[in-house]
Write a structure and sequence with these properties.
CATH topology of the largest domain: Fructose-1,6-Bisphosphatase, Chain A, domain 1
Radius of gyration: 24 Å
Number of domains: 2
Strand order of the largest sheet: 6-7-8-10-9
Bound molecules: zinc ion
Helix content: 40-55%
Shape: globular
Number of helices: 25
CATH class of the largest domain: Alpha Beta
């Protein structure tokens, strides 16, 4: 991109969402053949979108079609207040891939009347869709939460997602417990790719997501585009993996998914890589069912130097970790850590997206074959560009030194944190014999994120990183510590509504770590709570002592995971990671509101346009669209 300064990183803001764009400079450096590969993979990345919508809630697709039709048919005044409120609701639904907020999981509340809704539907010729959908949109107590994680309640009955039909939490847990064979050394990820349904005869069975099965049409499309992409793959290893993925989609056989994951892991030097499948289980309170997602990535050669140095020293990091020797790996399986640029986001990775990914999730594959980890640096870059002018740092940082560190080193600090978290943190440590990740049940995701974060926090303050040339000085670590504490105790509270508690795994883990460190370090003044003009700040007074605390907590969290200590996991998270200090929360919200910045962000994807010659695709061009709604409507078609 020549005119970097003129690129519009943020295109709009509505409700608590800002819409950003990312650039893919690495795409320009590819050969035409590689660009064609990206094109086909990007089509495969978009082809499974409807699966995710249906997974999130069974009414989402029907509702989306009505919203799309109303928007296309509407011929009235665009400035009309009711219509504006309708559009706001529609955009929120498009952004969240359904009727529930992508982060809080709460159902959206429409700010227009039932009468207006009926009129819009009638005008658009889709009043038939009325009855049940009206309940879905307007009845506050109906389908209130996408994923319920509240202790003591039936997490299945209380979740509005579409992974289970007519089964209770107990029945679902029993169903999968019966399939557990403790002696199995290579267990498939049970329940990962199916809906669990109780039929009229009371028999519980799985509807498997595969070509010819549930989501068959969508998966057929995904397979079609993968097949088009196949001849353009970067190498034979990648082709081998892709064939297994296709076969897995065709059969639904989870053993094939594991085989695919292993072959995908072995492909470590493809310039272009991708994720396409049922991957993450955050959308299911019981963590069996995976949502469909896709990311297409292009390697960023320069930035890869950094993670290469970390990965080459993985065993050193494992050996020096402040955890019990029993839980340490004595050899570290091929960690592939690369810095990539996102070329296309799909399914559960779009429009909101992760900034780092570490896969596969199956613990036995990670232990035997290692894991592949990516930092998505064009996404982080876009965030930084959009955030630099927002004023959040000035509002929540205590003094000029904290701001200086953040401005100078904040971006590098968060990238290195992500590298450490993804490339070493998740891959480190081992389970005790006979212990599986299921032992921690609903606390597993949070504990696992905490473990990876603590690993990153502990090591970012290590001189080893300076020695390796990963960071120029420990000032980078200070910037990251400031940022972590400021975010964990203050800024991230802007993402939740007054009176609510923390539910999402990453948010819970960040607060748990920050709040625990604050409490443990209070007497020694490691972190001090300060007040100025009625505003609260958390100020780090002793960085090295804070590092020690992170080390202590890492030791305990690793023990919890390795031993499967459910009680300790529950105690730690419920004490530090869930509850919110009400008056502090109100203060933070009001300070944030004055800045007028939306706390969540997501992205408009670029578009890839084939260049045709004599009916053949000879190259692909990239363009950067700038209207979110237009892209959403186009994806809907
Ligand atoms: Zn993570």
């Amino acid at each position: 991109m020549k005119n970097k300064d003129e690129f519009r990183w943020q295109t709009e803001q509505f409700d608590d969402i800002k819409i950003l764009r990312y650039q893919v400079p690495a795409f320009e450096q590819l050969t035409a053949r590689e660009r064609i590969f990206v094109y086909y993979l990007s089509r495969a990345a978009l082809a499974g979108r409807d699966i995710l919508w249906d997974q999130n809630c069974r009414y989402n697709l029907a509702l989306r079609r009505v919203l799309e039709q109303v928007i296309r048919q509407y011929s009235g005044n665009q400035e009309d207040v009711d219509f504006q409120n309708f559009m706001l609701y529609a955009k929120k639904v498009f952004f969240a891939n359904g009727i529930h907020h992508h982060y809080s999981m709460d159902k959206f509340v429409p700010h227009f009347s039932r009468e207006y809704w009926r009129k819009l539907l009638a005008d658009a010729g889709c009043e038939d869709a009325g009855g049940e959908l009206e309940r879905v949109v307007f009845e506050p107590a109906y389908l209130v939460k996408r994923v319920l994680l509240e202790e003591g309640k039936d997490l299945i009955a209380g979740s509005a997602n579409n992974y289970y039909q007519s089964v209770t939490q107990q029945e679902a847990e029993d169903f999968y417990k019966r399939q557990t064979d403790e002696t199995e050394t290579c267990p498939v990820s049970k329940g990962l790719n199916s809906t669990l349904v109780k039929d009229e005869d009371g028999i519980i069975r799985e509807q498997v997501w595969k070509v010819g099965g549930k989501y068959g049409n969508e998966l057929q499309q995904v397979v079609y585009w993968l097949e088009q992409a196949l001849p353009y793959a970067c190498n034979e290893q990648q082709q081998k993996a892709m064939r297994l993925l296709i076969e897995y989609y065709q059969t639904g056989d989870l053993k094939l998914f594991d085989q695919y994951s292993i072959e995908w892991l072995k492909d470590t030097d493809s310039k272009i890589d991708f994720i396409n499948g049922f991957i993450e289980v955050y959308g299911d309170a019981l963590a069996y069912k995976a949502s469909w997602e896709s990311v297409v990535e292009i390697v960023d050669n320069e930035a890869c130097e950094r993670t290469k140095r970390l990965a080459q020293n993985a065993l050193w990091f494992e050996g020096h970790a402040p955890i019990d020797e029993r839980f340490k790996k004595t050899e570290v399986q091929g960690i592939t850590a690369r810095v990539m640029q996102v070329a296309m986001l799909g399914g559960d990775c779009h429009p909101a997206t992760p900034i780092g990914i570490n896969l596969p999730n199956a613990e036995w594959i990670r232990e035997q074959y290692g894991s592949k980890s990516v930092t998505l640096d064009n996404i982080t870059y876009a965030y930084d560009q959009a955030a630099s002018a927002s004023g959040v740092l000035d509002e929540f940082a205590w003094d000029d030194e904290e701001k200086r560190l953040a401005r100078e080193f904040g971006s590098l600090g968060s990238n290195v944190h992500t590298d450490l978290h993804e490339c070493l943190g998740h891959g480190s440590g081992k389970m005790m014999p006979g212990v599986t990740t299921e032992a921690l049940r609903n606390y597993y995701s949070t504990i696992e994120e905490a473990r990876a974060d603590l690993f990153a926090l502990y090591y970012i303050m290590d001189n080893k990183l300076v020695e390796l040339g990963v960071i120029p000085s420990l000032d980078v670590a200070k910037a990251e510590y400031n940022n972590y504490i400021r975010n964990g105790l203050l800024v991230q509270l802007t993402r939740i509504k007054p009176g609510c508690q923390l539910e999402e795994a990453h948010m819970r883990n960040r607060q748990a770590i920050a709040a625990w460190a604050y409490e443990k370090g209070k007497s020694g003044k490691v972190i001090e709570r300060m007040e100025r003009d009625g505003k609260t700040y958390f100020v780090i007074r002793d960085y090295l002592e804070l590092r020690n605390l992170f080390g202590q907590l890492l030791r305990e969290v690793q023990r919890i995971k390795s031993e499967g200590d459910y009680e300790a996991a529950r105690e730690f998270i419920e004490t530090y990671g869930v509850k919110v200090d009400k008056s502090l929360h109100e203060e933070v919200l009001s300070r944030y509101e004055k800045l007028g910045v939306a706390p969540y962000a997501g992205f408009i994807n670029p578009e890839y346009q084939p260049v045709m010659e004599d009916g053949h695709m000879v190259d692909v061009r990239i363009v950067y669209p700038d209207d979110f709604l237009t892209q959403m409507l186009a994806y809907g078609e």
